[in-house]
Amino acid sequence: MEKYIIKTEQIDAWLKRIIESVPRVLAPVSSGTKTEFRRIKSPEEVNNKSLTTTVSAKAAAFPPVETLFKYQKDGKDTTLTEDSFDKYPETVLWHARSCDAMGFSPLSAIFDWDYKDNIYDERRNKLTIVTFACNQSDECCFCTSVGGGPGNVEGSDIQLTMLNATDTLVEVMTEKGQKLVALLPDIFQPLSEEVDKEAVLAKIPVQFTKEEIKEHVSNAFDSPVWKRQSARCLGCGACAFVCPTCACFDIQEDAHGNHGRRLRCWDACGFSLFTQHTSGYNPRPTQATRWRQRILHKFSYMPERLGVYGCTGCGRCSRACPVDMNLQEHLISIANSNHE
Amino acid sequence: MNKLQERATDLLKGGTVKLIIGFEQGNNKIRPFFCEKPEDAEKLIYSDDCSTNNAVYLTKKELIGDNKIAIIATYKEIASIIQLNKENQIKKENLMVLTVDKDGDVTELTSFEEMEKFCEENTPAPDPVVAALIEKIDKMNREERWAYWKSELDKCIRCYACRAACPLCYCNRCISEVNCPQWLDPWKSTLSNIEWQINRVMHMSGRCTGCGACAKACPLDLPIGILTKKMSTDIKEMLGEGEGGNVLSTFNPNDKENFIH
Ligand code: SF4
Ligand code: SF4
Ligand code: SF4
Ligand code: SF4
């Protein structure tokens, strides 16, 4: 890892150079009351003050709808065409947070579990992630309880930390990150003395550990806790769609007579239709069983099978939920319970 | 304990009801609360900040079963209950509707006449923000309007929170999920997002109570509540108040259009 110092006022000049050099730069842009990752054309568009976007950054590698292939039927013959990988642009994700960057590791674990998902991999490989360490947080954040933190560098190619009014620490983690630094090398001064990064980070108390949650939920399949917690859940897709690690998708057909596209679209385990069989039978017939799946998948099945937890503690699901299903609150109650 | 909590305790203790759907303090906001035990009754609260429309739970069999339940109702819940009843979705004998006045006194509304009366007397003032936005859009020409809705609904992620939060969106199989024929593309695209809202609003025509739960639920804060709002005002202007039912499910054999014959 290389460490530099950059004058905070020069960051925009660097970003401008990045925008000129990289086909697609995504950054938090505000519109109305919300801030989302959007493609930017100039540094002025970025909302530097935003804590987190409503929807996570996962769309950069796992868009809400992805064309898997196109088909053309001609009598008995069918021709399949896959999109050329050139279609997926080199992308810089700018002003993401640690909990965004961390989210790509569980996503990759899922998409490359047995079958290697070329489309996802290609998009992910073309992604360079620049995170800004958090000096503020809100009541929904719980990254420190799931192994992350406001200054965690896992998954980041570069992390920037504002140290004071004038100076920003630049930690370059990867070669991809070095390439961005090389676009305007003169503004980066090698770090001459150690700086206290921790001191400027948001303070987010640890409420539980992810291992503790795993231990509790792994034996709680039949616990009444799921019904109790999920009673007010409406069964929408908001929590899954905003989540950086939720990877469930549905395959859809965009059919037009003898030609069409096969699509991969975001799906959500909160929807009652998610597991409904053609026969009408639904193995997850109630919201309680769907909520249980959400928690067990993230805190039991994923660590068991993929060696990675499915939650970065970003708090997006809690902010998006129309009925205040606050994940941190539910996890604290799980950590403190003994599962009747 | 306040009067509401006392009443709730009595109802649960005496076994009059199995469940009370009310409100509790959540994380910086008030949220729905399912109170089943007398000892939980002290969590029940009631204030002007109760903003979810809890009538949405009344059509969820898995929650209420065949039990007698009570709901602590604001104007929103009551207006929805009246409409749900018109659509045969309420078993009145299993539902106790409780209101709380500004002094904290609890009153049971025992008949639909009383509920209608309550709504007449407690109609909330129109939301000035909503009214201003409708006015702004009314003034736009077709192109400007199209551009406005395209840019807003392009952001929609099709999470269907708007559908899930609406007490009157209770269909077991939503049109958005039917695929023979496929009425709407079920994936996110600007056009199909717009089609989804058009469908939602059309199905609400003459039924929507204007509670605003759909708009409040949208994680992206899209202005979808003004669509249903505008639809209800237009329907009322063009077709009058209507005698029960709604514009999509009533017809008049003497209709001047002859498609019905
Ligand atoms: S489950 Fe919630 S807190 Fe965890 S990563 Fe997903 S959105 Fe963030
Ligand atoms: S937890 Fe909240 S956001 Fe998630 S499905 Fe339930 S109501 Fe929707
Ligand atoms: S709640 Fe908002 S984002 Fe979700 S489907 Fe409805 S309009 Fe779209
Ligand atoms: S305002 Fe929205 S949530 Fe309320 S009844 Fe109308 S459509 Fe349903």
List the SSEs and their pairings.
The complex is a heterodimer of chains A (340) and B (261).
Chain A (H helix, E strand, L loop, with lengths): L1 E6 L3 H11 L2 E8 L2 E6 L25 E10 L2 E5 L9 E6 L1 H14 L6 H8 L1 E6 L25 E5 L4 E6 L2 H7 L7 E2 L19 H9 L6 H6 L7 H5 L6 E8 L2 E8 L20 H20 L9 H5 L6 H9 L5
Parallel strand pairs in A: 2-6, 6-7, 7-8
Antiparallel strand pairs in A: 1-9, 1-10, 2-3, 4-5, 4-12, 8-9, 11-12
Chain B lengths: L2 H11 L5 E7 L4 E6 L25 H4 L4 E4 L2 H12 L8 E6 L5 E4 L2 H11 L5 H11 L3 H12 L7 H5 L24 H15 L8 H5 L7 H15 L22
Parallel strand pairs in B: 1-3, 3-4
Antiparallel strand pairs in B: 1-2, 4-5
Number of helices of chain A: 10
Structural class of chain A: alpha+beta
- Would you count the extended β strands of chain A for me? 12
- What ranges of chain A have pLDDT less than 50 throughout 5 or more consecutive residues? none
Please provide the ordered H/E string of secondary-structure elements of chain B. Answer: HEEHEHEEHHHHHHH
Number of domains of chain B: 2
Summing up helix and strand content along with how strands pair, one would put the structural category of chain B as: alpha/beta
Low-pLDDT runs of 5+ residues of chain B are: none
The largest sheet of chain A, given as strand count, sense and whether it forms a barrel, is: 8 strands, mixed
Helical content of chain A (DSSP H or I, runs of 4+): 25-40%
Question: Per the principal axes of the C-alpha atoms, what is the gross shape of chain A?
Answer: globular
